[in-house]
Write a structure and sequence with these properties.
9 helices, about 475 residues, 2 domains, two-stranded antiparallel sheet, 4-stranded antiparallel beta sheet, rod-shaped
Length: about 475
């Protein structure tokens, strides 16, 4: 190796050390940047001439070091696992949130819930059976029935509002998904161009991977890398992003909870109209729209019809103060439609029309009967093991169990997702302690390379300035 070739070796060493310091500084600068992946300089030894020229023999040790490539420190397996686990976490969280909102709508347990209102009704009929001629006890029964009907309508309105808000939230999520997918396609195109031109793409890749993870959380997307640096994004086997081409998503189906039986909400591709097998938050919200909220609306409607049937049947079996047989307490439904929790209404009866007696008045002197047996029959309904109280308790208990299971599943999945994220962070995250150690290593390497330049300079000075001076 000639002395001047040693300068070239030292120069590459200085360049490699400076390159390492630059990359280390970039890592330290982005220690708090979300989605940033730690970068590392790939150093490779530059060998000497492998095949010498004719009539010459090369004994060079090597040509120094190459530090042109800067790689992101990533684990492909952990990245794919993070996409799957984040999708599952978002789905379970959305389902648990939907059930929690349904619990809020029923307001159980508490003095504002339907169970408390129903208990007040039974108590009112018990008071009426003890004093059937008292106007206050008769008015109290009607008022408490009206409160119960209003509570049922309020619960149904809360469920309807939750359904509408969930659909609006899903519509907003679809808009975000289309925006993120378009950004991934744009970044794919930019990364391909930069890769072909030999330009660095690490920061662009970080931005794209963050968007892919966002799509995983939103819609359950997964990514598959290509050889040219781009990724293809799919949702349930359907292509969402293929290179620089993106397929839009839209929300189809009924915008009314009553129409889901024939036209259930779903996500479809646009164009094409193919239904997507979604994951993530979208899957949880679709479950709430098509199964969870409609299921409890149906059960509440059945309870409202049971309330109307039970009370109407019991009331028509008695007689009011004037000796007239009792009328139905609840309307059959607006415009002849079936009774639901949304239209359950107490008929405008007067206190005298409350059928508290089991038998008609005797008719002597036109005096009303003090019989309160029919009011007592109302109270006996509360003791029926298969009656209204029992059916409502079954509904509330089933809701509580389902919500508890969903919450527990979401919590367990959150722990799993957190463990995967911690594993990813341990690989691709920036550790200031590690970066400081690396920085000191490159600093000493730079100092050593500089010292090598000084040594070669001294050798050249001796060779040039002092050779041939002996004997002068």
């Amino acid at each position: 190796m000639s002395t001047f070739s040693g300068l070239n070796t030292a120069s590459t060493a200085l360049w490699a050390a400076r390159r390492g310091l630059d990359v280390t500084g970039q890592n330290i600068a982005n220690v708090n940047t979300a989605g940033y992946s730690r970068q590392r300089v790939d150093q490779a030894a530059m060998g000497g001439t492998a095949v010498p020229a004719i009539h010459s023999v090369s004994t060079e040790v090597g040509g120094g070091v190459s530090a042109d490539k800067v790689q992101r420190v990533r684990d492909a397996f952990l990245e794919a696992r993070a996409q799957l686990e984040s999708s599952a976490t978002s789905r379970l969280t959305a389902e648990a949130d939907a059930l929690s909102q349904i619990e809020d709508a029923f307001r159980e347990p508490g003095d504002k819930g339907l169970q408390s209102m129903l208990s007040d009704v039974w108590s009112g009929f018990s008071d009426l059976s003890d004093s059937p001629l008292t106007p206050a006890s008769r008015s109290q029964v009607l008022e408490r029935l009206d409160v119960l009907a209003d509570g049922i309508r309020t619960t149904r309105a809360a469920l309807d509002q939750q359904w509408g808000q969930t659909r609006d939230g899903l519509q907003a999520l679809v808009s975000d998904v289309n925006t993120a997918a378009a950004s991934v396609a744009d970044l794919n195109g930019a990364i391909r161009q930069a890769t072909l031109s030999g330009l660095p793409v690490n920061e662009l890749s970080d931005r794209r991977d963050a968007l892919v993870l966002q799509l995983s959380q939103s819609i359950g997307a997964t990514a598959a890398p290509r050889a040219d640096g781009v990724v293809d994004v799919t949702v349930g086997g359907t292509s969402l992003v293929a290179g620089a081409t993106v397929t839009a998503v839209r929300l189809a189906g009924s915008d009314d909870a009553d129409g889901i039986g024939t036209d259930a909400p779903r996500l479809v591709t646009q164009p094409g109209g193919s239904t997507l097998r979604t994951g993530g938050a979208a899957a949880g919200q679709l479950t709430a729209l098509t199964r969870t909220v409609p299921g409890y609306r149906t059960q509440l409607d059945e309870f409202a019809r049971s309330v109307a049937t039970a009370f109407n049947t019991a009331h028509t079996a008695g007689y009011d103060l004037t000796g007239v047989q009792g009328q139905a307490l609840f309307d059959d439904g607006a415009g002849g439609t079936a009774i639901t929790a949304a239209n359950l209404t107490v008929r405008p009866l007067t206190p005298e029309q409350v059928a508290a007696a089991r038998t008609a008045p005797a008719g002597t002197g036109g005096r009303p009967s003090a019989d309160g047996d029919n009011a007592d029959a109302f109270f006996q309904l509360s003791l029926d093991p298969a009656g209204l109280d029992a059916s409502y308790r079954r509904l509330v208990v089933a809701l509580g169990v389902e919500s508890s299971v969903a919450t527990r599943n979401a919590e367990v999945q959150s722990v799993v997702s957190a463990q995967v994220d911690a594993a990813r962070e341990s690989v691709s995250g920036v550790s200031l302690d590690e970066e400081m150690t690396t920085m000191m290593s490159f600093q000493h390497a730079y100092s050593a390379a500089a010292r090598m330049v000084s040594a070669i300079d001294q050798a050249l000075d001796t060779l040039i300035s002092r050779t041939g001076l002996v004997g002068r």
